[in-house]
């Protein structure tokens, strides 16, 4: 879901999205500022066809921030993604049923990445979802579950 082979030939996020990813809350010591920061980020990378309810988004992100706000962890994740490199050659070795789920409106990992994965993983099934960005809209959970269960049944 929403991932890539790591090929450097694939398009990446726009400058606007890259800038948002490295931006910081206005006041990192204030929980409300941190939550507002993440709400802005999620609205930028989220699904335009399945917009998140503002109250639900605030509540979910507020819970997450209050439970475990670790900006260093986010920085480490970004470094790990950048350092991981191209996994294209490894993908041909995947022999299990594979379901690729990707939003056609994903501004963080553009949809070309899903097409690339499907071409490199033999027999992979590609489920491109119109209006989906880089999030997991609750309305699509039944579709995600069906796709994952279908891949499991094919094994």
Question: How far from one another are the termini?
Answer: 18 Å
Question: Which residues form runs of ≥5 with pLDDT under 50?
Answer: none
Q: What's the CATH H-level superfamily name?
A: Alpha/Beta hydrolase fold, catalytic domain
- Strands side by side in the biggest sheet: 1-2
Give a topology summary.
Layout: H1 15-22, H2 31-45, H3 54-68, H4 71-84, H5 88-91, E1 99-103, H6 112-120, E2 125-129, H7 141-154
Parallel strand pairs: 1-2
Helix pairs in contact: 2-3
Using brief descriptors, characterize the structure shown.
155 residues; mainly alpha; Rossmann fold; 7 helices
Question: Mind explaining what this structure looks like?
Answer:
- The chain has 155 residues and is mostly helical.
- It has a single domain, classed as Rossmann fold (3-Layer(aba) Sandwich).
- Helices cover 51% and strands 6% of the residues.
- The chain has a two-stranded parallel ribbon.
- Strand 1, helix 6 and strand 2 form a beta-alpha-beta unit.
- The model has no long low-confidence stretch (mean pLDDT 94).
Short overview:
The chain is mostly helical. Helices cover 51% and strands 6% of the residues.
């Amino acid at each position: 879901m929403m991932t890539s082979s790591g090929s450097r030939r694939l398009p990446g996020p726009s400058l606007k999205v890259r800038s948002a990813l490295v931006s910081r809350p206005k006041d990192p010591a204030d929980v409300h500022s941190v939550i507002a920061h993440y709400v802005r980020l999620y609205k930028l990378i989220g699904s335009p066809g399945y917009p998140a309810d503002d109250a639900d988004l605030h509540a979910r992100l507020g819970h997450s921030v209050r439970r475990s706000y670790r900006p260093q962890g986010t920085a480490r994740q970004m470094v790990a993604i950048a350092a991981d490199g191209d996994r294209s050659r490894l993908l041909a070795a995947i022999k299990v049923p594979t379901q690729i789920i990707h939003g056609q409106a994903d501004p963080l990992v553009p949809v070309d990445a899903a097409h690339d994965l499907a071409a490199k993983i033999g027999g992979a099934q590609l489920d491109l979802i119109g209006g989906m960005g880089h999030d997991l809209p609750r309305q699509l959970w039944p579709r995600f579950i069906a796709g994952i269960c279908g891949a499991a049944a094919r094994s």
